[in-house]
Write a structure and sequence with these properties.
The chain has 324 residues and is α/β, with parallel strands linked by helices. The chain is built from 11 helices and 12 strands. It folds into 2 domains: 188 residues, D-Maltodextrin-Binding Protein, domain 2; 102 residues, 3-Layer(aba) Sandwich (D-Maltodextrin-Binding Protein, domain 2), CATH 3.40.190.10. The radius of gyration is 21 Å and the shape is globular.
């Protein structure tokens, strides 16, 4: 395994002093077993992030085994209490989560929220994409916009869990169009797979999710992409932003990893070290490029401060949109 300059210097110094080297410096996995908890059904963005972590970690010898546990429902609010209660104090487990979990906790008035776990690192940021089924009545952005302005209740829109980023984007779109966000005909799904099926099956008029979750269906011609929700266009994807289309909305979805509550500093630092080494690997960088994810890597105290700010802002936004 190739060592970074810092690792190389540390290894040389430790050897010269007769000190024991960390396992990863001796070419052994940093974790023999690192459990991955995904509070969502297979096929969605959190699951995709976890699988990307697994591929990069195994490709570069950072882990031996990485067992998965998927527990979907309510934007992570079904799996989160299970993670908190069953994994407390365990330093060899990571949970994937993100901005969706903040809104879901508020919307569901959950007694257990993202505040109850240990932040390790923010990893990626991804703009949402608004799509319609290719076999549906609506084919263009102008047609979708006109339908939403005429009667939002008649335009069903599929997305992730209630209160999540997809739901917020729709509410913000309606507000920007002069309509009441509470009139949104939002259809929430526990995972990307079921949402995809509902859209291409014509069960809904449109859909909102991260581009990577819809990319396969877009390329196959089963979905028509109309716009993206980020501040700028997605590199390599010729789609206008909502702002370009005259709708003053800009919102992206970030994802990261969290540890169980009750871990000690040594356990926390080991997980931070693991993720820091992971994001520096060529395999992880290739995952970002392939999935159209933007690197938003941030760890330790800066991530904790950013997370607290995001929670406070979403609490205000969801009240404004009538979602809390």
């Amino acid at each position: 395994m190739t060592l970074s300059k810092r690792d190389f210097l540390f290894s040389g110094a430790a050897a010269g002093l007769g000190l024991a080297l960390p396992a990863w410096a001796q070419g052994k996995p940093q974790f023999d077993t690192l459990n991955m908890f995904v509070p969502a059904a297979p096929g969605g963005g959190w699951d995709g992030t976890a699988r990307a972590i697994e591929r990069a970690a195994k490709a570069h010898g950072l882990v031996g085994n990485m067992p998965f546990e998927n527990v979907g429902g309510a934007g992570g609010m079904v799996g989160l209490p299970r993670f908190v209660n069953q994994r407390k104090g365990q330093g060899n487990v990571l949970m994937v989560g993100g901005s969706v979990m903040i809104g879901a906790g508020i919307a569901n008035k959950s007694p257990v929220t993202i505040k109850n776990v240990t932040p390790i690192a923010r990893l990626t940021e991804e703009a949402g994409v608004i799509v319609v089924p290719s076999n549906g009545k609506i084919k263009t952005w102008k047609e979708l916009e006109a339908a939403l302005k005429a009667n939002p209740k008649a335009v069903s829109v599929a997305g992730g869990s209630a209160g999540g980023t997809d739901h917020l984007i729709l509410g913000m779109m309606l507000k920007a169009m002069g309509k009441n966000p509470r009139d949104a005909a939002y259809v929430a799904f526990a995972g990307g797979g079921p949402a995809n099926a509902a859209i291409i099956g014509g069960q809904v008029s449109a859909g909102i999710s991260g581009y990577s979750e819809f990319e396969e269906q877009i390329k196959a011609g089963r979905m028509i992409p109309l716009a993206v929700s980020g501040k700028s266009r997605i590199p390599g994807v010729n789609l206008p932003t909502l702002t370009e289309l005259g709708v003053n909305v800009s919102e992206s979805n970030w994802r990261g990893v969290f540890a169980a509550p009750g871990i000690n500093d040594a356990q926390r630092n080991a997980l931070i070290e693991f993720v820091t080494r992971l994001v520096a690997t060529p395999t992880w960088k290739q995952e970002l490029e392939t999935r159209k994810w933007v690197s938003a890597f941030m760890t330790e105290r800066p991530f904790e401060r950013d997370l607290a700010k995001d929670i406070a802002e979403k609490e205000v936004l969801m009240k404004e949109l009538g979602l809390a």
